[in-house]
Amino acid sequence: MLYLVFLFIVLFFILAWRRPDLAVMFLIAALPAYLIRFNISGLPATLLEAMIWIVFLVWAIKNFSRVKNNFLENFKKENKKIKISYPFDWEIVLLLLVSLAAAGVAGFSASSLGVWKAYFFEPIMFFIVVVNIMKGEKGREKILWSLAVSALAVSALAIYQKFTGAFIGNPLWAAESTRRVVSFFGYPNAVGLYLGPIVLLLAGWLASVIAYARNGKIKIIFISLTIILSSLSIYFAKSKGALLGVAAGLIIFGLLVNKKIRWATIIFLIIMGLGVAAYRPARDLGVSNFTLTNKSGQIRKAGWSDAWRMLKDGHLITGAGLANFQAEVAPYHTEGIFIKDFSDPDAQRKLVFNEVYRVAHWQPLEIYLYPHNIVLNFWSELGLIGLLLFVWIIGKFFWMGIRLLSLRGSVSDRSNLTNKKFIIIGLICAMAAIVAHGLVDVPYFKNDLAVMFWLLVAMISMVKLESVNN
Question: Residue 300: which domain range?
Answer without folding.
Answer: 295-364
